[in-house]
Amino acid sequence: MRTLRLPLILLVAGVAAIVFFVFQFVIPRNTVLVSAPGGTYTEGVVGAPQAVNPLLCQPTSIDFDLCRLVFRGLTRLDASGEIVPDLADVVANNASTFTARIRGDARWEDGAPVTADDVLFTTALLQDQNFPGDPNLGRLWQSVRVSKIDETTVRFELSQPSARFLDFTSVGLLPQHVLSGTTATDLARLPFNLQPKGNGPWRIVEVGTSSGRISAVTLEPSATHPGPKPQIARLVFRYFSSAQAMVDTFRNGDIDGMAAAPPAEIDSLRALNDVAVYSMPQMRYVAFFLNLRKDSGAVFLSDPAVRQALMLALDRDALIRDALHGRAVIAHTPFVADSWAWSAAARVYSRDLPRARALLEGAGYELRAASTSADAVWQKDGEPLGFTLTVPDTDAARAVAELTAQQWRELGIPVAIQPVRNLQRGSLQPRQFQVALVEILMDGDPDPFSLWHGSQAQSGKNYTGWDNAEANKLLADAHTSVDRAARTAAYAQFQEIFSTDLPALVLYYPTYQYVLSTRVRNVEVGPMIYAADRLRTIEQWTVNTRRVLAEEQ
């Protein structure tokens, strides 16, 4: 027996050595790892969803991530902000009448077809005076007559022509056969809002709670969606009460990605070997809005020479480098560079303090020591040129404001910074500001009529009060036209006027930093309209791998 033990041991050791050699040296040289279907992708998000209902989801809310995955509308916005068909082809008969034909393979997750009745049901809720969602969305639909042509065809008739109408057909539909009898008053408290039945590529299968708040939502691919099937088997969102808790969980390897990772953490995360940081341009711009009204307390802002001097004093490269840590791109017009409406003909400004001083001198200002300070400031008729800069109460906004104030003080213009919690409601809507740091989302059609046309200065979104006759005509013509070439030409002229008159000082396009584990493969990123667009290509993402022969790849 002892005589057999040694050969047996040697035989086992030899086999083990051969197996080790094959797996260590032969297989890796002849095989490669490739992406494979299945697995779970888990993402961390700060906050918690409230209602997964496409009529209540605000584009800036956490709910919107889920609404975009679970629900679809007649149309959708592509990566360049263009409206494209989704559940239907929508044809513009003219600027006031549109026809939608629903795809024959469009289905709800229970297998029922998407029909014209779903469109009528959804739009009736939007038109209801008691609609609890975005009032602007409700007002738009209240001016539209919706009629059913047949089971899959709907006609929309507008009370006034609008180039932007198609943007509003991207709102997700609700299932009439599930929610029949629901009124607009019921919408906010429907059990459906956390147990939705959608028509999108994903369906919610589990909602986890902890301490009375939603802590996780799990989704799986919908078997009835006609589009490409996701490669990932399960998608999980974990919701955190703080950004630090989310970052710590990511560092521990318990989640695969983070939505809106804290800027202060990006550089240290980027240095990790198993982390990828994707930088995506956002379809929005940030600008200083100048209140041009006589009662703003800064009447000098109505002088174009002063506005140009303020622009020439800005070092936007420094703002992006030092205040935003490189997470933005310089902008020159109130259109995003990826839009068909953007024009290269707009005037471009770089920092030029001598020229800024010359403009102020030409406008009758003198640089003198102020009575309250040893610093020299620009004055005219004894009144100093200085103002309050109102900004959102965020770290990034305060950093931009502080560096900008320093640059304007170097010109001789004192600036007081006023952070506020709700810039829109507390300062812009009541027109109670002098200069404000504003971020403008350019979603869908780039029509800026509501922001810059003189008719919108009193109760619309023209917060600056700018009223330029030539610009007004160009904006009005483009607002009511569906002729792309004519609109492009009108917007090019508008941008030339805007960049000379400067009712606002356009600063930059912010970028979105998306942090993922390198185990997540096939990720493609592009321009983002909403934060939810980070998931635009999730159907092709993978987290699993398998080994195949190199020649089979």
Which terms summarize this structure?
single chain; 553 residues; alpha+beta; D-Maltodextrin-Binding Protein, domain 2; Dipeptide-binding Protein, domain 1; Dipeptide-binding Protein, domain 3; 3 domains; four-stranded antiparallel sheet; 15 helices; 23 strands
Brief digest:
The protein is 29% helix and 25% strand.
Q: Could you characterize the architecture of this molecule?
A:
This protein has 15 helices and 23 strands. The chain is of the alpha+beta class and 553 residues long. It has three domains: 24-67 and 200-269 and 528-553, Periplasmic binding protein-like II (D-Maltodextrin-Binding Protein, domain 2); 72-190, Dipeptide-binding Protein, Domain 1 (Dipeptide-binding Protein, domain 1); 284-510, Dipeptide-binding Protein, domain 3. The protein is globular.
| Distance between the amino and carboxyl termini | 50 Å
**Poorly predicted parts:** none
- Tell me the fraction of residues in β-strands, as a range: 15-25%
**Broad CATH class of the largest domain:** Alpha Beta
Shape by Cα distribution: globular
Question: How many helical stretches?
Answer: 15
| Gyration radius, rounded | 28 Å
The fourth-level CATH homologous superfamily of the largest domain is Dipeptide-binding Protein, Domain 3
Secondary-structure content class: alpha+beta
